C-alpha cells in the first residue's frame, strides 16, 4: 500500500486541490485509492457531495478502521470534521500519540494508494501522517514564503527517518503556477537550484477552473475533462505512479 502524505505547513499552497485531484487521477489509472482528509478544516471532504456519518475523527477516537465512502468504483473518501482538532489533546503524554493514523489505516481495507490531505501545520496531525506514510509529496507555490516551508518539511522527514528509513520524499511540486509571471519564473528557478533533482516535472497551472470545480463539488476530471489544468493533474498522477512503481 502506497501511502502519500501531502505536506507543507504554509497555508493555501494547494495541498487539498492536489490531494483531491491526484486521488481522482490515480483512480482513473485503475488504482484503488483512499483519500484521507486529515485536516479539521475538512476542505477535501467538502469537495464532494457525500452524506457522512463517520469520520477520521470518530474512527481514531473509537479505535476503528477509517471510514471509506465510495465516490466512484476506485475512489473512496475518508472524511474529516472539526472535531479532529480535539484529537491531539486526548493523547497528550501517550507514547503512541503519533501512530494513531497508522494504526487506523492498518485496521482497514487494502488500497493501491492512500492520499492524505494534511493541515497547514507540522504538529500532531502532520506528524501522524508522516508516521503512517510511505511517501511524502511537498507542494509549493513558486513564491518565496512557500519555498521557505519546503526546507522545514524536508527536515521533518529526515527526523522521522532517523531511526528507521520508512518514508521517502517523492518530490517537491509546483502548484498554482503562472508561467507568464516573472516572479513565478524566478521562484521556479530558485526551487530547482536549491532542491536540484527533487522538483517534479509536473506543475499545476493557476486557473479559476480549480475554484469553479470546487464550488460545483466536483473533481477537475469530472467538472472540466478537457481543461489544461486537468491534463496537468493527469501528468502528475502518471509521474507519481511511475516513481512509486519504478
Ligand atoms: N492551480 C490553482 N489555480 C487557481 N487556484 C488554485 C489552484 N490551486 C489551489 N487554488 C486555490 O487556492 C486556494 C487554496 O488552495 P487549497 O485549499 O488547495 O490549499 P491548501 O494548501 O490545502 O490550503 P490549507 O493550507 O488551508 O489547507 C483555494 O481557494 C483554491 O481554490
Ligand atoms: Mg487544505
From TrEMBL:
It comes from the Bacteria. Pfam families: AAA_31. InterPro entries: AAA_dom, DNA_Partitioning_ATPase, P-loop_NTPase. Residues 1-163 form the AAA domain. CDD domains: ParAB_family. Transmembrane segments: none annotated. PANTHER family: COBYRINIC ACID AC-DIAMIDE SYNTHASE (PTHR13696:SF99), P-LOOP CONTAINING NUCLEOSIDE TRIPHOSPHATE HYDROLASE (PTHR13696). This is AAA domain-containing protein. It comes from Persicobacter diffluens. The lineage of its organism: Bacteria, Pseudomonadati, Bacteroidota, Cytophagia, Cytophagales.
Amino acid at each position: 500500500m502506497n501511502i502519500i502524505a501531502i505536506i507543507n505547513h504554509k497555508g493555501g499552497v494547494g495541498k487539498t486541490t492536489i490531494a483531491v485531484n491526484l486521488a481522482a487521477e490515480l483512480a482513473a489509472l485503475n488504482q484503488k485509492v483512499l483519500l484521507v482528509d486529515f485536516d479539521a478544516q475538512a476542505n477535501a471532504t467538502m469537495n464532494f457531495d457525500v452524506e457522512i456519518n463517520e469520520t477520521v475523527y470518530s474512527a481514531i477516537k473509537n479505535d476503528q478502521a477509517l471510514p471509506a465512502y465510495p465516490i466512484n468504483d476506485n475512489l473512496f473518501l475518508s472524511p474529516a470534521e472539526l472535531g479532529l482538532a480535539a484529537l491531539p489533546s486526548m493523547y497528550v503524554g501517550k507514547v503512541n500519540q503519533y501512530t494513531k493514523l497508522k494504526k487506523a489505516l492498518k485496521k482497514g481495507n487494502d488500497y493501491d494508494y492512500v492520499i492524505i490531505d494534511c493541515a497547514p501545520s507540522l504538529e500532531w496531525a502532520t506528524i501522524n501522517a508522516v508516521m503512517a506514510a510511505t511517501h511524502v509529496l511537498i507542494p509549493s507555490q513558486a513564491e518565496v514564503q512557500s519555498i521557505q516551508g519546503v526546507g522545514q518539511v524536508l527536515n521533518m522527514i529526515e527526523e522521522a527517518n532517523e531511526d528507521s528509513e520508512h518514508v521517502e520524499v517523492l518530490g517537491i511540486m509546483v502548484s498554482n503556477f503562472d508561467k507568464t509571471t516573472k516572479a513565478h519564473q524566478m521562484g521556479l528557478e530558485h526551487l530547482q537550484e536549491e532542491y536540484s533533482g527533487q522538483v517534479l516535472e509536473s506543475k499545476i497551472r493557476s486557473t479559476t477552473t480549480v475554484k469553479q470545480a470546487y464550488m460545483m463539488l466536483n473533481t477537475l476530471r469530472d467538472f472540466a475533462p478537457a481543461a489544461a489544468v486537468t491534463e496537468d493533474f493527469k501528468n502528475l498522477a502518471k509521474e507519481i505512479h511511475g516513481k512509486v512503481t519504478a
